[in-house]
Structure formats: C-alpha cells, structure tokens
Amino acid sequence: MKSFPFPLLVTLLHLLLIFALAALARALERCRSGRPRAALSWADCLRRAAPAALSTSLDIGLSNWSFLYVTVSLYTMTKSSAILFILLFSLLFKLEEMRVTLLLVVLLIAGGLFMFTYKSTQFNAQGFVLVLCASFLGGIRWTLTQILMQKAELGLQNPIDIMFHLQPLMFLGLFPLFAVFEGKLFLGGILAFGLGFSEFLLVSRTSSLTLSIAGIFKEICILFLATHLLGDRLSLLNWLGFAVCLLGISLHVVLKAMNSKGDKALEPHKEASSDPDLQLLLRHPEQGEEEEELVETPQQH
Predict the structure, then answer these.
(1) Confidence band (pLDDT; 50, 70, 90) for 8?
(2) At what angle do helices 159-181 and 183-205 cross, to 10 degrees?
(3) Which of 2, 62, 131, 209 could tie 78 with a disulfide, CB 3.0–4.6 Å?
(4) Rounded to whole angstroms, how far apart are CA atoms 250 and 11?
(5) If pLDDT is split at 50, 70 and 90, which confidence band does 301 have?
(6) What is d(CA 187, CA 171) in angstroms, rounded to the nearest whole number?
(7) Comparing C-alpha atoms, which of 150, 143, 26, 40 is closest to residue 94?
(8) Which is it for the CA torsion 195, 196, 199, 204, positive or negative?
(9) DSSP 198-239
(10) How far is CA 297 from CA 54, 162, 280, 284, 286, in A?
(11) 8 Å CB contact between 278 and 272
(12) Is the pLDDT of residue 212 over 80?
C-alpha cells in the first residue's frame, strides 16, 4: 500500500482474480467428477448472499485502506477486536449462548486493546477508525457467512462455491467506494482512451501535422487549467507566447478551410472529366485524329 497507494483498486483486482480462480477450480472439479456444481440464481444471490458479500468486501477494503495510515502492529492489535463483534452478532443471531466465559473474553480483549493504543507514539486516529470499522464489518461478515454456508438447501458448503458466488457481489459492493475515493484513477483511464481514440481518428481524417497542431492546443489548455485550478503563475512573456501559439493555430485552421473550399470547387470539373461522353467533346481535334490513326493501323496490317 505504501508503494501503490490505491488500496480499493488493489482489492477490486484481488476480487476479480479470486473469482477467476474459483471459476477455474469449479470447472476442473466438474470435469473430474462429471457432476454440476451448486449455482444460485441472481435473485437468490441478491436476497441471501448480498449482505455477506457487502460486509466482506467492505471489511477487506477498509483493512487494506488502513495500511496507508497505521503500522502493521497497530493494525494487527486492532483487527483482533473483530472477535468482539463476532461474539456480539453470534448472540444476536442466536448462534452462540451467553456465558460468563464469553464476557471474560470480551473484557480481556477490550482491555488489551485499550492498553496497546493508549498514548501510543505510532497511533493514527484515521487508520484506527478504519481498522475498527473493518473489525465491526468482519463480525457481520463471518456471522452471515456461517449462516449462508450452513444452509443445506443452498449447497454452498464447499469453499470454492461460496467464493465463486460472493466475489461478483463483493466487487459491486466495493466499486462505489472506489469510484468516490479513487475514481480519479479510473476516470484518468477513460480520458486516456478518449484521447487516444480522438488522436487516431484525427490522423485518419487529416494529417500528422494537424495532430501536432492540435497537440499544441492541448498543451495550451493544460497551461490555462494549471493557472486557474492549480495556482501556477505565468509571466507577461508567457502570455505573449500563448497568444502567438493561438495565432499560429488559427492560421492553420483558416488555411485548411480555404484549401477545402478550393477542393470542393474543383470537384465538378473532376466529375465532368470522368464522363466518357464529355471527354469526347472536350478532347483536342488533333488528339482525336491521332487516336483514329492508331485504331486504323491494325486493320491495314
């Protein structure tokens, strides 16, 4: 995360890779056994698997995000609090019964976490909140996953099957968060595609010289936006160069327009000369006599 500070994008790529590997493992197992694997409809996925998928994706995404702010030791200690939330939701969903030993476990973990983070020199509040939220979501995640996998009618007891069905929903659940906080990276890719498409289209319809001049106009736009959005400062000489560049580009546009008008004016003459009957009418008399002599020559032999 320190070398590539886009944790949500990394998480999305991991989800895609896990989905691909799970699909491959299911296909290999189906070929080996000859039996079809468990497959839920989209309606069942959204109704039964979506809550577990959403909590899982946010748990992993926020955990990876926290590494931008916290150390591994603080992350590990704070993430261990997930067992508190797992116990809480297990009690709420009646997967566990309330016991004195469970209460003792909760107190020990909470006390140890407080002691570890109290006046810590490497404590970061933003990272701590991210890990704590991930721990909370982890409690929901594992409780719902347990319920999902232990329902015999769904047939998701195999880890490969549960991974295969959860990954697409996890991707969709995490993508809005990525679009808000790291969408500039995604938007940059879309803009790069549009830029490349327009450049190739321009070359195919005009010339490389026109592309170069359009590129100069692009650089001028960048300078203009930099002064207004990023606070860059330009001197009077810089603005004079700006005006000269605009003058050159305008001159090119005018010349291209004039040339295109001239080409359109010549088109009727070209079309007329392509007509065979008109060619006969417009050809020179001497040229016609020469052509007749050439035609008669084979007959004399």
Answers:
(1) very high
(2) 80
(3) 131
(4) 48
(5) very low
(6) 18
(7) 143
(8) negative
(9) HHHHHHHHS-HHHHHHHHHHHHHHHHHHHHHHS-----HHHH
(10) 91, 90, 21, 20, 17
(11) yes
(12) no
DSSP letter string, 88-108 = HHHHHTTSS---HHHHHHHHH
- Quick one: DSSP state of residue 135? H
Across 221-241, b (16+ Cβ under 10 Å) vs e yields eebeeeeeeeeeeeeeeeeee
Q: Which residue has the higher pLDDT, 74 or 210?
A: 74
As a residue count, the chain comes to 301
> How far, in Å, CA of 51 to CA of 140, rounded?
9
CB of 143 within 8 A of CB of 88? no
Please give the full DSSP string across 137-191, using - where no structure is assigned.
HHHHHHHHHHHHHT-GGGT--SHHHHHHHHHHHHHHHHHHHHHHHSHHHHHHHHH
* Cα–Cα distances in angstroms (integers) from residue 145 to residues 5, 84, 133, 159, in the given order: 30, 17, 18, 11
Per-residue model confidence (pLDDT) at position 111: 81
Q: CA 221, CA 232: separation in Å to the nearest integer?
A: 13
Residues with Cβ < 8 Å from 42, sequence gap 6 or more?
none
Q: What are the angstrom distances between the C-alpha of 185 and each of 3, 91, 214? A: 15, 42, 25
Q: What angle do CA 151, 163, 77 make, to 5 degrees?
A: 95
- 283 phi-psi bin (left φ>0, alpha ψ -120 to 50, beta other): beta
* Residue 90 neighbours by CB under 8 Å, 6+ apart: 96, 143
CB 177 within 8 A of CB 58: yes
Q: Which residues of 79-110 are buried (b: 16+ CB within 10 A; e: fewer)?
A: bebbbbbbbbbbeeeeeeeeeeeeeeeeeebe
Q: Mean pLDDT over residues 157-169, rounded?
A: 92
pTM as predicted: 0.68
DSSP 8-state assignment for residue 47: I
In single-letter form, the type of residue at position 147 comes to: I
